[in-house]
Amino acid sequence: PLISFGRRVVSVEPLLGGGNHEGFRSVSWQVTTAASDGTPEGEEDITEVQDFDVVVVCNGHYSEPRCPNIPGEADFKGHLSHSHNYRNAKGFSGK
Length: 95
Known about the structure:
This protein is mainly β. It contains no helices and five strands.
């Protein structure tokens, strides 16, 4: 299957030295995933390693941002923004 649910990505590493494709040097990718079963970090986890010609990153940048609760946030007098809303540095000039 091309999509695996219930897994988290541990690493994505380029595998150089692939063949040539239409005059371009090809790169494949080694993707390591682990079961997303709530295993505490640092404990042994079931991992799976697979090689792919293409990797698509779909991290939800254009969906609703997730903002953590930060102690003291209400008392902060500056401007708070999420990277989701960043378009250019214009509003930060001179600050």
